Amino acid sequence: MKRFGNLIGLRPEKLEEYKKLHVAVWPSVLKTIRDCNIRNYSIYYKDGLLFSYYEYIGDNYEVDMARMAADPETQRWWEVCMPCQKPLETREEGEWWTNMDEFFHID
């Protein structure tokens, strides 16, 4: 299992819309997340930033993420969510959410 932490900005005028979307995430999107071996997925908000945390339990992250990205319902979900988000200027090329390095963990 590998843990992931990611950051992205949230446009202030889109806060309520984004919260409403995530109160009722589409069941097909939740199924794709699970089918792509993502578990324990959470998104937190503070001061204009979203922090996501999830655990990957599969054997090939790149293949699973490509499968998720190819899913038509997930693509539609992203089209709804992405206008709410504001990627960080410091993100790596090709990133939407900025991947964070894990410095510490204790079970």
- Summarize the main sheet: 5 strands, antiparallel
How many separate structural domains? 1
Report how far apart the termini are: 13 Å
CATH C-level name: Alpha Beta
Element pattern in H and E: EHHEEHHEE
Based on CA atoms alone, the radius of gyration comes out at: 14 Å
Shape assignment: globular
Q: List how many beta strands DSSP finds.
A: 5
How many DSSP helices?
A: 4
Derived from helix and strand composition plus strand pairing, the structural class reads alpha+beta
Notable features of this structure?
alpha+beta, globular, 5-stranded antiparallel beta sheet, Alpha-Beta Plaits, 107 residues, single chain, 29% strand
Task: Give the secondary structure arrangement, pairings included.
Layout: E1 2-10, H1 15-23, H2 27-35, E2 38-46, E3 49-56, H3 61-70, H4 72-81, E4 85-86, E5 98-100
Antiparallel strand pairs: 1-3, 1-4, 1-5, 2-3
Q: What's this model, at a glance?
A:
Helices cover 36% and strands 29% of the residues. It is α+β, with helices and mostly antiparallel strands.
Structure commentary:
It is a single chain. The protein is of the alpha+beta class and 107 residues long. It has a single domain (2-100), classed as Alpha-Beta Plaits (2-Layer Sandwich). Helices cover 36% and strands 29% of the residues. It contains four helices and five strands. Strands 1, 2, 3, 4 and 5 form a five-stranded antiparallel beta sheet that branches. A hairpin with a 2-residue loop joins β2 and β3. The protein is globular.
